[in-house]
Amino acid sequence: MLFRERNFALLWSGESISLLGSEVSVIALPSLAVLVFGEGALGVGALVALQWVPYVLLGPLMGVFTDRLRRKPLMQVANVARFVILGSLPLAAALGHLTVAHLYAAALLKGVFDVVFQLAYQAYLPQLLAREDLIDGNAKTQLSRSTALVLGRSFGGGLVSWLGAARAVTADAVSYLVSSLALAFVRHQEPRPRPAQRGVAATVRDLKGGIALTFGNRLLRSLTLMATFGNMAVSLTLAMIIVFAYDDLGFSAGRIGLALGVGAVTTVVGAVLSRRINERLGMGRTLVLTHALLGLAFVLLPVASAAGKGFAFTVIVVSQAISSFTTPVANVGIMTMIQKATPPQAMGRVGGVSLPLVWGANAVGPLLGSAVAALASVRVTFFFAAVLAWCAVVWILLGSVQRITDDVPEELRVPA
C-alpha cells in the first residue's frame, strides 16, 4: 500500500493540496480580471492563454534542464515561486497597487513554474517508486487531479463570492507553500544527475536529443501523437458544446453548467477505478477502449436536438459522463508506460518535447471546431471530434501499443 510509503505519501498529499488550490485560481484569476478591471471575453481569454503559452514555448527547454538537475529542488523552487507570484496579487490589492499588467504578468510567470513543476514531478516519481508501483502512484495522482477538478472550482466560486477575487487567490498561493513544506520532509536520496556540458551548443544538442528520443521510439511517438489527437478532440468538443447548447438547444447558462457538472462527476469514478481497469485489461487495450468510447461520446451529442430539453439534458450528461470517465483511466496508462519506457535521466527531455504537441492541441482544438462550424455546422464538429478521437486509436494500433499489458517490452524501451 503506497499510503504507508512515507515519502510518496508526503509528495502526494502536498500535490493534492496544490491541485485543489490551482482549481480555485481557475475561477479566481478570471474573476479578478472581470470584477476588478472590467475585462471582457478577449481579456479573459488572453489571461487564460498566458498560463498555457509556457507549455508550448518552454517545454522542450525546461525538459533539458530537468534532466541536468535534481528534481526535488526544482519542485521546491517552482512551489515557492508560485507562492510568491500568486501571493503578490492579494498583497498588491490590499495596498491599493494591483494593476492589470501585474495580473497578466503573474499568470504568465505562474505558467512558467507550472511547467517546471510538472516536468520535475513526472521525472521524480519513477525515482521515488518501485517499477511495479508506478501505476498505483499515477492512479493516486490522477485521483487527486480529478477530485480537485470536481470540487475546486465550486470551492473557488464560493471563495470569490465570500472574500472577493483577490483574496480568493490567497488559497492557491498558500496551497503551494503547503506543498513545499510537505516536499521538504521527503527523505529520498536522488541520484546525481548526469554530467552535462554547458552553453548554447550543448543545450541545442540536448534538445535535438530529446526530439530523437521521443520520435525515434515507436511507443513514445505513438503515445505522443495519440494524446495530441485525443486532447484536440476533447478541447474542440468542450468549446463547441457551449455554442450548441445555447444556439441549438436553447439552454440557459445554469442548465449548461448543471449538465456538464453532473456529467463530470464520473471523472472521480474513473480515477478510482483506473488502476484496476489498466491492470485487468492491460494498459494498451485500455487506451484503445477509452479512445473508442471517447469518439462514441462525441457522436451522441448531435442526437440531443432530436427531442425536448429534458432529453437533450440527458444526452449531454451521458456524453460528458463517458468522456470524463475515460480521461483519468487513459492518463494513468499513458503516464505509466512513458515512465516505464524512459530511463530516469531522459524523463525531462521526453516530457518537455511532448508538451508543445499535447498541450498545444488544447488551443488548436477550439480553432478547428470554429472552422468546421463555419464551413458546415456545430453538429458536424462533434462528428469531426469523434474522427480525431478514433485517429488516436489508429496511432495506438500503429505503435502496437495495444499489446502492452503490465510492463513495457524491452524492444519498446528507450536505451539507458
UniProtKB/TrEMBL annotation:
InterPro entries: MFS (IPR011701), MFS_dom (IPR020846), MFS_trans_sf (IPR036259). It is a multi-pass membrane protein. PROSITE patterns: MFS (PS50850). Residues 219-416 form the Major facilitator superfamily (MFS) profile domain. It is found in: Cell membrane. Its main location: membrane. This is MFS transporter. It comes from Streptomyces tremellae.
